């Protein structure tokens, strides 16, 4: 929930720069393009703009977090058997927002003087997902160089 809130807030600061015109596809640099499918309403992945993709993503994550059968809020109610799978999917998709921000909007982040906050948030996110092996290494490829820098001892 904390990662979702942080990413939502960080993306919210650059929405004026991430438009249908400036970001007609959801990408993380020229080699990575993401298509949206939630498995329920949109079963076959669709190509859409970054703002549309991120809107779909954030709405979908919020729906998952609000689902009492997935994220029980009452003490003693167990998490479902598929919890880890759902959590991994959520984190994989949230990573894509970081990747998009770093690749397509880092200049705006710099102009807004938010890079320290973005880097701190991302570093916390990456350390968490790596500690518990929650995102496949292939999925992290768009920001692998940054991940290595953030994790280096001399930093």
TrEMBL record:
Zn(2+) binds at residues 18, 23, 100, 105. Pfam families: Mob1_phocein. One of its GO terms (molecular function) is kinase activity. It comes from the Eukaryota. InterPro entries: MOB_kinase_act_fam (IPR005301), MOB_kinase_act_sf (IPR036703). SUPFAM superfamilies: Mob1/phocein. Keywords: Kinase, Metal-binding, Transferase, Zinc. The keyword Kinase applies. This is MOB1A kinase. It comes from Columbina picui (Picui ground-dove). The lineage of its organism: Eukaryota, Metazoa, Chordata, Craniata, Vertebrata.
């Amino acid at each position: 929930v904390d990662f979702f809130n942080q990413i939502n807030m960080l993306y919210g600061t650059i929405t004026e720069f991430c438009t249908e015109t400036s970001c007609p596809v959801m990408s993380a640099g020229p080699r990575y393009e993401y298509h949206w499918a939630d498995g329920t309403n949109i079963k076959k992945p669709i190509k859409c703009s970054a703002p549309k993709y991120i809107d779909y993503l954030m709405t979908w994550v919020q729906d998952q977090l609000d689902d009492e059968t997935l994220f029980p809020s009452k003490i003693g109610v167990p998490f479902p058997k598929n919890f880890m799978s759902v959590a991994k999917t959520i984190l994989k998709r949230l990573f894509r927002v970081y990747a998009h921000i770093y690749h397509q909007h880092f200049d705006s982040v710099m102009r807004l003087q938010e890079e320290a906050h973005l880097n701190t948030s991302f570093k916390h996110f990456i350390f968490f997902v790596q500690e518990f092996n929650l995102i496949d290494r292939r999925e992290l490829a768009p920001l692998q160089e940054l991940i290595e820098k953030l994790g280096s001892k001399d930093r």
